[in-house]
Structure formats: C-alpha cells, structure tokens
Write a structure and sequence with these properties.
The chain has 363 residues and is α/β, with parallel strands linked by helices. 45% of the residues lie in helices and 19% in strands.
C-alpha cells in the first residue's frame, strides 16, 4: 500500500493507494476515526456495486454503519440532495460524533464533504473514490460543494477529509468514457507541474485506455503527490493552488451552459485546456509545437478538443460569473511550456473570442 501525506498541520491526512484492498477500508478508517456511527453515501450506480462490501468492512471494524444512496448524475449535485442527507442523519439520530464516508466519484465526494462541513457545524468525513477523476483530483484537497443554476460549485466550503482511501481495482467497473474523462485531469497535472509525467502519458495512454498498463497505480500516486504538495502550500486557493484550475475556467462555463448533461467534467476540462494552450500560443507565451503535443495527447485519450452548439460570446459571459474572477477580470491559467503554467488576467476579450470561435465544431 502506497501513502501520500497532505501536510496541513492538525488537519493533515493520508492518501492510501492500494490495488484490491477495498475490504481493508474499515480497518484503515478505524486507525483515524474515533466515531462509532458511519454513514456511507453513494449514488445509484456505485452503491449496488460496492456499498455492501464497504459496510461489511466497517462493521468488521466495529463501526455502526449504514448507507444512503441518491440518484446518479451531476444534476443531483444540488442543495436538495444535501438536504435529503441532513434529513436522514437527523431522523436516525446521527450525533456530532459521526463520520460521513463518500463512496463514489466527484459528485458524491463534493456532496458528502459539504454535508459533513455543515451538519451540526461539522462532522468527520472520509473519501473512498471510485472514479479516476476523483482519485487524482476531487477527493484530495478539501473542496466541497454543490452547483447553482448560474455556476458550477458556487455554494461550498473548504473542508478536509480525515482520510482518502483509494483501491484502483474498482476502476475495472468504471465505464470507459468515465475513465477517459479522468485522464483529462491526469494530463492536467503533467501540463501544470511535471513534464516527465506528461511524457509517460504520451507513451502509456493507449495502454491505460485498453486496461493493459502496469503504470496506473504509479500514475495515480504521482498525481496525488502533485496535488498534495500544492494544497499543503495553499489550502484555500489564495495563490499557487489556482494553477489546478488549468482548463477549468472555460470548462466550467461549457458545463454550465449545457446544464451538465452534454459533457462530462473531464471532457469539458479537455476543451478548456486546448483553449488555454491556443490562447497562450496567440499571445506568444507557448510554442505551437508544445500546444500540438497537448492536442495529440488529448486525441490519443479520445477526449474532445472542440465544442458544438454553443455561442463563444455566451461562454465568455458565463466565464465572467466564475468565482475566480477578480475585479471583473477573467483569470486564466495559461501554459508557458509543458510542466509550467502562469495565471494571467490580461488576456484581451477579443483574443479569447477568436480562440473560442476557432474551436467550434463537432469534435
């Protein structure tokens, strides 16, 4: 079992990475959680696959464990679902000394974390991610929250888990398109911080998609190390943590404008990364050959690099509602080279519009 530590003083925690060890989850939680009652929260797709295994593991570790299952989908990441969790907790007398366990992907983790941050002014929670995207990104760092019709993740809190437990074996039941969506976030880490990881992905992506790569656990660990190091330096995104938003400003706007139905999160981020690279080329920050390498890798991962049925002007207007906007200026994470990015708020709107117009199309 591999361990990555997120260093945040008294809020520090470990990310445990194993293969074929979900039945060990209860014992690992017991080592860090003093509470007796645990509520496992998952959606209608993941729950039937793994909830009973996790519950059995928890009960064997002497936890009083139950589960709560909500309907699958990004459209469930709303306050109404959180209110349903509150109602379940209150009806079954869950005290402040309880733990919420997020068993699922990014939606489940964000919902569960926000419920934990706000129920009785804060209870413990742990992450047991079941998607590649959640393993490498959303389960680490303490961002929790729900969507609003005007913006993604508009309502939320920074609230760290007590533990992240990753079993890569659960990815065997992940839909191929969801795996590819997670690869977008993996590629992001190479672009923002690690050219060697990017090079590995250029060599390994085909094998990863085919399920033939022996590098998966190592790649997941490296992504977690990068995020843990950034979060340890900047927990609340007042500085360097903002580079994790590479591809997300355009991506979030596209998700919101399509009501979170047309593009998976990673697919929207892939489009956003291409937009950021093309902007960087246009303003002289990035060599076109490096932009081409990103395009080729996303294509190899079978991720979209264009969008359709959206007005570029509408995308820009939605970007202006992004919570990272400062003094009315859109902040973009732009690549200088593979492995290094810079936050810019001086990109002319005309340049942004030109790039988005060039990216219209079916693929």
């Amino acid at each position: 079992m591999e361990t990555v530590k997120v260093n945040l003083g008294e809020r520090s925690y470990n990310i445990l990475i194993t293969t074929g060890g979900i039945e060990k989850a209860g014992a690992e939680l017991k080592s860090v959680i003093p509470d007796e009652k645990v509520l496992v929260i998952s959606d209608s797709r993941v729950g039937p696959l793994y909830s009973e295994k996790v519950l059995e593991s928890l009960r064997q570790a002497d936890f009083d464990a139950d589960d709560f299952i909500f309907n699958e989908g990004e459209d469930q990441k709303i306050l109404f679902t959180v209110e349903r969790i509150y109602s379940f907790l209150a009806e079954y007398n869950y005290p402040r000394q309880c733990t919420l366990a997020a068993l699922g992907g990014g939606v489940t983790g964000d919902l569960t974390g926000f419920a934990a941050a706000t129920y009785m002014r804060g209870v413990n929670f742990v992450q047991i991610p079941t998607t590649l995207l959640a393993m490498v990104d959303s389960s680490v760092g303490g961002k929790t929250g729900v969507n609003h019709r005007l913006s993604k993740n508009l309502i939320g809190a920074f609230y760290q888990p007590r533990l992240v437990f990753i079993d890569t074996d659960v990815l065997k039941t992940l839909a191929p398109e969801e795996f590819r969506s997670g690869l977008a976030e993996v590629i992001k880490y190479g672009m923002i911080a690690d050219p060697e990881l990017f090079l590995t992905l250029e060599d390994e992506t085909g094998n990863l998609i085919a399920g033939n790569s022996s590098s998966l656990e190592r790649i997941i660990k490296r992504c977690c190390e990068i995020k843990a190091e950034i979060v340890s330096r900047d927990e609340r995104e007042s500085g360097v943590r903002a580079i994790l938003n590479f591809g997300h400003t355009v991506g979030h706007a596209i998700e919101a404008l399509t009501n979170y139905h047309k593009y998976r999160h990673g697919e929207a981020v892939a489009i956003g990364m291409i937009a950021a690279a093309r902007i960087a080329v246009k303003i002289g920050m990035l060599d076109d050959m490096q932009s081409q390498r990103l395009w080729n890798l996303l294509k190899q991962a079978k991720l979209p690099y264009r969008f359709s049925a959206l007005d570029p002007a509408d995308i820009i207007e939605r970007m202006k509602k992004d919570k990272k906007v400062r003094s009315g200026r859109i902040r973009l994470v732009l690549p200088k080279k593979i492995g290094e990015v810079e936050i810019r708020d001086d990109v002319p709107e005309k340049t942004l519009l030109e790039v988005l117009e060039e990216m219209q199309g079916e693929k």
